[in-house]
Amino acid sequence: MLACSHCINCSDRCFNDTGYCNGSCTNGFYGSDCNSTCPNNCYYRCDRITGECTNCKTHYYGVNCTESCSERCHDKYCNQSGICLSCKSPYYGDNCDKNCPSNCNAVAGCDRQTGECSYGCNYGFWGNYCENNCSDRCKSACQRHYGTCWGCKPGFGGSNCQFNCIAHCDSCSRNDTCYECSKGWFGEKCELRCPVNCRNSICSMFDGSCSCSKGWYGKDCNDTCIDNCDSCIDNTTCNVCSEGYYGRYCESSCPSNCTKCERSGEKCTRCNSGFFGDQCTCDVDQCFKHESGSHCVECKHPGWYPKIGGCCRCSDNCKGGHLNCDNTTGLCLDGCEPGYYGTHCVDKCSSHCIGNDTVCNSTTGVCPYGCEPDWYYSTCKYGCSLLTPHCSKCSQFKDNINNFEAAGCDECDSGFYKPILEKFCARCENCLNDECNGRTGRCLKGCKEGWYDNPYSLGTCDRRCDTSCIDGLCDPTNGTCIHGCKDGLTGDSCMLTCSSSCLNKTCDQFSGGCIKCNPGYYGHSCYFGCGNCLGGTCNQTTGICEDGCMDGHFGPRCSRLCNSCVDGKCDRQGGCTSGCVDGNFGRYCNESCSQCMGGKVRSKRCLYGGLYAWKIRKKLRCILSEKIV
Which of 155, 357, 488, 549 is the most buried (most CB within 10 A)? Predict the structure, then answer.
């Protein structure tokens, strides 16, 4: 190596003959001639004389940076003494040589100094060191400091899921107060089964109403739709046909190999595997010769024509049958059979042409005499009620026939209304005389018997009178039971339970006050016990013990104790009948002899610092002593 090659900032010059550098060395070198290499892991420079590293590269420490930082250091960072700047999870301590508790959050780790799981526990554990198991009633995790469940498993309630919910209740606040019934149940106590045909067996906890399973309708889903119908509001029409069917009444089957088609039947939206095309009549296996990958140029059999992906069968509606077609294009050679139209004769004339379904133009399908009422477009194939039963006026999709399936209803038939953002008309079924506003569904003449209007439902009478109402009848404006509540219930809507202390569990419908109390109770709702009354009975209104008190008690309700009477015996007014216990005197034995000794002011009969005092005499009575001078 040339002398002075690593010498910089010389004040005069480098002595080439000796190699001595009177300046400084470039990074990575040291020595008088700057030709010695600093240790590998030095950060840029080392001591000019000794070669000791001034700073180390990342991940190293020590005099010559020969020591590697611990693998337990976060990102393997440590200071010049080898102490980790922070620890990698799951370690802690000055040297990151201790293991965090096993149930600390695996990603966040624990406190560097104490080892506490300050950043949370794994699911199922709680405590400073995550040493405690969450209750097995917790749905998943619990609060780290106190073990409070974040949520309960079905059937339990309370902050620690300590309550067992009543039968068929998934979520409760106390044993008998349910917030959410189990699947298939409803009612205040989850004691009623949802109608059997509710979708997924789920119904409203309030009144049991639900969305119906396929093929059923009605408030209780007990009525069947017409055949091949998945969703309806009565048994004369259908909102949604079952897969594989189409038509206003779902009376027609989709073409062969077509598993789902448009309501009009004009086009298949899903074919069986291996088939394609608007009518699913094209078959990938019918191609005899391909070119350019999947492009078919020749079919296996007559009566088929090639198309990208396979071959399509010529229409059976060609005059002379499907063999009477061009095997290259599929065009019918002699036109269509009556009732069909188009170049391939796959389209059927509408049955809603005025005249009959064979009078349409064989090329265009246009009905020459117009359409029956409620049907549109020149081919008379598109009607409001086809897509939306009970629709009397629909969007003008006839200006854009490709948007037919998306067409909506503007106005429904009498007795029906169009819910906001919904496609189908709904029946005014809970309205008196089935009369409601066609846009809002608000009942024009009130509710039918057995239904009432929820203040938030804008007059649609969508609440059923509670089953607790006698005869199931309630005020149609607020739900108050007209003929009262069934036994054991109270409240305007009969949704509250009478006190268990009410005789025969009967109470006033509106106030909740018991008609009579069970023996041993008194008060408006019979919540108070007769306590120490003789015989355990008292006046059910006032609670006064009319037959006297048990030994040791006195007062109108026998609520006071004869504490200072001998043997605890006193009369109804509290006067001791057998004398006073030691240290007391007076009719009620409520005067204390010891309090009066020395003239201390303790009662109205003692004068503070006065002229008189009391003394104790035999038989434990206090008497006035001589005058003190």
Answer: 549
